[in-house]
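Morning. Coffee machine broken again, so started the prediction first thing and wrote up yesterday's gels while waiting. Chain of 113 residues, entered below exactly as on the submission form.
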Amino acid sequence: QVQLVESGGGLVQPGGSLKLSCASSGFTFSNSRMNWFRQAPGKVPVWVAGIGNDGRMITYATFAKDRFVISRDNAKSTLYLEMNDLRTEDTGVYLCGPSAGTRGQGTQVTVSS
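Came back before lunch.
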């Protein structure tokens, strides 16, 4: 059974940073391209970033480029998202998964002064 557990969210001021984690099990993490998504209040989830199974082939949504860094540790079956220079519009639930249809429950990120 696929399990994806996101953590690391919280309340942060504009300009601040957070590092999210996604612990994975129930599938071969090291063979899977992984992604981060986010869902703003009242909106559908949008894709944030993706990383190939070997840590290469990294891509970002335009809003995430130059501020967010996606990474992974295959030995720990864990995906990360480091977020810098956070803005109020980055507020939302951040979810991870190998596809849009397979995601965890998410971790809340709130950017507010």
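The beta strands are 3-7, 10-12, 18-25, 34-39, 46-51, 59-60, 68-73, 78-83, 92-97, 107-111. Going to sketch it on the whiteboard this afternoon.
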